[in-house]
Amino acid sequence: MKSRTFRRHVRESFKSLGRNGWMTLASISSVTVTLLLVGVFFVIMMNLNSVATSIEEDVEIRVHIDIAANEEDRELLANEISKINEVDSIDFSSKENELDSLIASFGDEGEAFKLVEQENPLRDVFIVKAKQPADTIQVADQIEQFNYVSSVKYGQGTVEPLFKFIDVSRNVGLILIIGLLFTAMFLISNTIKITILARRHEIEIMRLVGATNSFIRWPFFLEGLWLGILGALTPIAVVATSYYYLYDLIQLKIPNNHFIKILEFNPFVYQLSAVLLLLGAAIGVWGSLMSVRKFLKV
Known about the structure:
There is one protein chain. The protein is an alpha+beta fold and 298 residues long. The chain has helices at 3-19, 21-58, 71-82, 95-105, 111-115, 136-143, 159-198, 200-208, 213-253, 265-295, and strands at residues 61-65, 87-93, 125-130, 149-153. It has a 4-stranded antiparallel β-sheet with strand order 2-3-1-4. The longest helix is centred in the C-terminal third of the chain and has 41 residues, at 213-253. The protein is elongated, with a radius of gyration of 30 Å.
């Protein structure tokens, strides 16, 4: 396509936006509202996913070794566990280390344990992590069947509903976002339809003088593109500003060592802004494409 022809298409697309002022405003507003909701859902879902991933990574299987097992028995058990395909890592923690960890977890009160001379009642432990957190339960059930295993603990009763909640929240969020995007595409498509109907006589004349299909379609594609981009600017500004202040507020309220951490402002907001801009452009062009294919008989 020649640059002069492309400039002509750009001018025509902007003229069309001006001629259909109210419909243009309505479309931009609908895209703005839609992408604002999408942006909010993205912020919630991405941070929820980040927290969920952090929690999932902390899920581990603690295999308490039989007190009668010797060093050779422990090695055999470790080899059996390592043969499970879903196992990612195995770490050994002696009962002395387990006692030290227990004492440390009590803080100052734990110092009293050091003063009591008695045999260590704890057991040696294998700390096992699955490659995928969702495989934790399956791996734990397999390990429980092995010899020299006294007990297996992985947060039974807590892990199962946690994984289920994470899966459901991710799926619901994805469905809502897709629904909102299709709503925006439908609204832009209707705007382009009205533009095409208003210019049908002009289009017929263009066809009579030999204008090609692509020559007629290009201004409508560009018009959809501008509608999507203009509709994305306000949501980007609102979401970025809100997240900036929200991030500072949460940083003050939640200590750095807390397991709940939201995504850092940079680069998350810049990535989100790029996604919203691309989504705005994509749904604008897609809405225009659907309208042109269905209503423009060329």
